[in-house]
Amino acid sequence: MLNNRQLRFPFACLLLVAALLRGDPLAEGIAHWEAGRHEQAAKVLKKAFRDDPNSSDACTYLGLATASMGDHEMAIVMFQNALLIDPTLGRARLELAQSYFALGLLASAEEEFRTVLADDAADGKVRENIEGFLQAIDEKRDKRDRVFLQNYVIRLELARDSNARVSPTGSVYFDVEIPGLDGALEVPIERDGYLAFWAAANYEYRLRNSKLAWQARVDAGNVAYADQKDLDIQVLGARIGPALRLADNGAAGIMLRGLYMDKDYEDYLRGWGGLVWTAWRLPHHATVRAEAELMQRDFTQSDDDGSDGTYGHVRLVPAILLGDNLVSGLLSYGFANTDNADESYDRLAAALRLRRPLLRRWKLHGEVFASVRKTLYDSPGVYSPSRRRDTEYALGTSIERIFTTSWLSVETWRVGLFYEYTKSLSNLDLYDYDRHLTGLRATVVF
């Protein structure tokens, strides 16, 4: 007697042949899914979704296919779409819960599992399966009914920093990119390459089913510039504060921040301040995050004493998923009010990024970005009676491979190459320069 697996394969083949004859991408995609060809199913079902985004079947089966390929973020979006079209789709809700669980979003997973359990239509096997998931969720929480979440990020970057044209005096400086620190440290142009190592640990602690959580983050890093006069920078930062879930699609929080930095292994910078943020998930696969920060920075090396003062910024970061394309932007205003007027400024910045898959089989993704930054200083520049005004234009691209391993738990890797070009123009030619940055970057999240 034939078993269910032996019967399902020829049936899927018949469905596929019929779908090809009709030119029906939905039926063709379902047939691929039934036959276990998940990548082909996802490709065809995306066409079915584009043809009819209001088809609950297209959304559900595309979610199933992408979840089977490990892309649970995309699966969640599709299952949510299916439930917006028809909230009674028990299978879509069950699969949504399982994708939440796979990403470690335990509260959301539990909520969806219990919603399915509340439906009397759920049969015995489904209920037994859900009970198993709920038990697994409870095992991930401590006995006191508290939730502790954590994740870690490590980044290694090796880059070549070269210049097509620089100021004749050699007094032009570049900002060093330090996570969470905008424009705090500069190095002279003669540096021609660097090796950077960054690590971050993120923690969240809350009572189960509570809207209030405590979040903390620790950053540590080292940037080593190599030339005839080496420069090493060590950074240690920390932040902590409460976060409040405002609705099913929004949250806000406030954090206290502290920062310590060494330059050439000597005390260089100490900073403290606060950060206020809010983030929202919007319709049509869009998100937006806004934040405002103030920080007092005290430089301890005599050459930089004039930079002591208050630094701040307001930043808006929108993003939207358009098919396979993730489009994000940045709008920001920053300022520095320092002891030395030459170091005080007002700054406006804007950026646009586009990210999309390139070769799915090899899990390659590409990104391009463009940005502009305008800075107006409070005092005249060198040899000029007018206030110094700088404008920086930047273009960049990167290609990286994204893959997962299971050495410790589940690690997500991003490894690839990047290139950035920056052109700086000033009302004083003294500060003009061209910069090319080429390098290798590897990031792991676990």
Task: Characterise the protein shown here.
It is a single chain. The protein is an alpha+beta fold and 446 residues long. It folds into two domains: 4-139, Tetratricopeptide repeat domain (Serine Threonine Protein Phosphatase 5, Tetratricopeptide repeat), CATH 1.25.40.10; 147-445, monomeric porin ompg (Porin, Beta Barrel), CATH 2.40.160. Helices cover 25% and strands 50% of the residues. The protein contains eight helices and 16 strands. The protein has helices spanning 4-22, 25-34, 38-51, 56-68, 72-85, 90-102, 106-117, 124-139; strands at 146-165, 173-175, 186-188, 193-207, 212-225, 231-247, 250-263, 266-282, 286-299, 309-322, 325-338, 345-359, 364-380, 387-405, 411-426, 433-445. The strands form two sheets. It has a 14-stranded antiparallel barrel. A hairpin with a 6-residue loop joins β13 and β14 (387-405). It is globular. It starts with a helix and ends with a strand. Mean pLDDT is 80; it is low at 1-22, 164-176 and 179-185.
